Amino acid sequence: MMCVTYVEYQVLLNGDHISPITLAKGLRQGFPLYPYLHVLCVEGISVLIKHHEFTRKIHGICICRQTPSIIHLLFADDNFLFCKATTTEANYLKDILLSYEVASDQAMNFSKSVVAFSKNTSHEVAASISRLMGVTKFIRNSKYLGLPSMIGRNQKAISYYLKD
Fold it and tell me: What is this structure's pTM?
């Protein structure tokens, strides 16, 4: 735990040592155990989400009939969470995220987060959920990692985009 919670930097200023800078929290950049610790923490949020799905408090999405639902996708430090567009399920998701924050001391950055809705979701419900979660509504033409976030039915469009 000393490697994880206690970091000290030695600084030279014009060739002279100044008093060490001690960080009481967090991991230093490039810390070799960080990827493993992150995987352990992310497993915690995954278990919380799966528990809420198992107890039918939140519901994922199905890409076609007779397939398992997708409740979350985790990419490095990006999370995609899926649920029905109701304030009840949004509240459960927010509770999961707050529980994870308390347990891991990793806070969700809601100012960088967005929420997307299906075309069937009314504007009133979408606005209510956006306010509840404290996130902005997704803009259709935005990109994620340089690629269009929404492809739709015209999959050739994304192929041409990648080729260009």
Answer: 0.69
Residues 6+ apart with CB under 8 A from 40: none
User: Which residues, including other chains, have CB under 8 Å from residue 142's CB and lie 6 or more apart?
Assistant: 114, 149
Say if CB 114 and CB 81 are below 8 A apart: no
> What does the domain layout of the chain look like in residue ranges?
33-142
Burial bucket for residue 120 (CB in 10 Å: 0-12, 13-18, 19+)? exposed
Dist CA 150 CA 118 (whole Å): 11
Joined together, the tokens standing for residue 81 give 């969470």
Which two three-digit tokens encode residue 82? 């899926």
pLDDT digits (tens, 9 = 90+) for 52-63: 999 999 999 888
Residue type at position 128: S
DSSP string covering 18-69: -PPEEE-SS--TT-TTHHHHHHHHHHHHHHHHHHHHHTTSS--B-SSTTS--
What percent of the chain clears pLDDT 70, i.e. is strictly above it?
Answer: 74
Range 125-130 average pLDDT: 92
Helix, strand, coil percentages, rounded to 5, for the chain: 40, 15, 45
